[in-house]
Amino acid sequence: MSTRRAISSLGMLVMTLMVSASAFAQATATGQKPFEPQVGQAGKDVVWVPTPQAVVDKMLDMANVTKNDFVMDLGSGDGRTVITAAKRGARAMGIEYNPDMVELSKKNAEAAGMTERATFEKADLFETDFSKADVITMFLLPSINMKLRPKLLDLQPGTRIASNTFTMEDWQADETATVSEGCSSSWCTALFWIVPAKVDGTWSTPNGELKLTQTFQIISGTLGTQAVQGRLRGAEISCTAGTTKYAGTVDGNTIKLTSPSAITATKKM
Predict the structure, then answer these.
(1) Is there a single domain that holds both residue 187 and residue 65?
(2) Taking the CB of residue 50, how many other CB atoms lie within 10 A of it?
(3) Are residues 112 and 219 in the same domain?
(4) Is the peptide bond before 142 cis (omega within 30 degrees of 0)?
């Protein structure tokens, strides 16, 4: 081999190595390992622990999620609850503070073919408007639940709320279920509430004054001289006054009782 040819070959080799090294350096500088969430990783207000899929399914079952619902998942993590709701035909949105989790959720929704019905927003729970939600799901600490509770109670009566494991303290759940099949962790309890209508106060009825005291969905009071005990399930009201059982619907400042006969109660302002 001639000296000129050897030098030329060596130059080409050096150039190739330099290009390869440059490309590697650039890939190292710009390329990042795909984000992988770690159980227990710190978040804004909580650490991340995924809800077992069996519990996700149970929560959505208890809330009776259908294609007509708009579901909001608070602290949506990897997006599994939102995606599962979307697979049931609902429109669903996840609210998540960690931008990496938001991007992961979007990728998971894309992989599941649910991008049209499953969306995610990087947002603060305490600055988010929940008013358009039919169903709210969450797996948050009790302290966070309590901070959110006043906002949740102001939602439209009948709004359905499902939580993994953690309660609303003295706002007792309307339903509680423990999931045994498909859940072997410490997070296997699903709780369900329906936002009750507001009925506390005095109402005029053909049968006398109806005075009600309300503690969340539980009501008590008097109808004329008879003691009243009952409960609310969203806008639906059922109660007993003496030996008579009443049932009806709350509509703002009107209670329309349909059983045992049609009676309208109007709230005194």
Answers:
(1) yes
(2) 17
(3) no
(4) no
Q: What amino acid occupies position 67? A: K
Q: How many helices and strands in the chain, by DSSP H and E?
A: 5, 15
SS3 218: strand
Handedness of CA 65, 66, 70, 72 (dihedral sign): positive
Contact (Cβ atoms closer than 8 angstroms) between residue 213 and residue 219: yes
Q: 147 and 262: one domain? A: no
Name the domain count of the chain. 2
Q: Show the tokens assigned to 70.
A: 């708009």
Question: Could you report the per-residue pLDDT of 235-259, keeping only the tens digit for each?
Answer: 999 999 999 999 999 999 999 999 9
The encoded tokens of residue 92 equal 């669903």
Give the CB-side neighbour count of residue 261, counting CA atoms within 13 A. Answer: 3
| Angstrom distance (rounded) from CA 82 to CA 177 | 21
State the CATH number of the domain containing residue 71: 3.40.50.150
Written as six digits, the tokens of 155 are 């939602």
119-158 residue pLDDT tens: 999 999 999 999 999 999 999 999 999 999 999 999 999 9
Q: Report the mean per-residue pLDDT for the chain.
A: 87
Rounded to 5°, the CA angle 49-53-55 comes to 85
DSSP 8-state symbol, 196:
P
Give the tokens for residue 120. Answer: 């995610």
Domain residue limits at 205: 201-267
